[in-house]
Amino acid sequence: MDNRPEPESERRGQVPLLLWAMIGVIVVGGVALWLAFGTEKRSISQTTTIPMTEPHKAPEVTRPVQR
């Protein structure tokens, strides 16, 4: 009946894994933000993919002729 807490070496092995996971999430998030916004200043017209033209108008719906 050994009621001692787990040794320090076993407990220490779990903390760096969590620490590395947190660091990885922060690094990946930072890279994603850097890629999204970039370091150079770009206008909104260069970053957007929506063309700045008139919206396409839907064709008028006509009822079929009933005979």
Concise account of the structure shown:
With 67 residues, the protein is mainly alpha-helical.
Overview of the molecule:
With 67 residues, this protein is mainly α. The chain has a domain at 15-39. The chain has helices at 8-12, 15-37, 44-47. The termini are far apart. The relative contact order is 0.05. The model has no long low-confidence stretch (mean pLDDT 73). Residues 44-67 are annotated as: Disordered. The chain crosses the membrane at residues 17-37. Keywords: Membrane, Transmembrane, Transmembrane helix.
Helical content, roughly? 40-55%
**C-alpha-based Rg, rounded:** 29 Å
Seen as an oligomer or otherwise, the chain set is single chain
Q: What is the strand tally?
A: 0
In sequence order, what are the helices and strands, one letter per element?
HHH
Number of discrete helical segments: 3
Structural class: mainly alpha
The residue-averaged pLDDT reads 73
**Shape label:** elongated
Low-confidence parts: none
Strand residues, percent? under 5%
- Spatial separation of the terminal alpha carbons: 95 Å
Could you give a short account of the major beta sheet? none
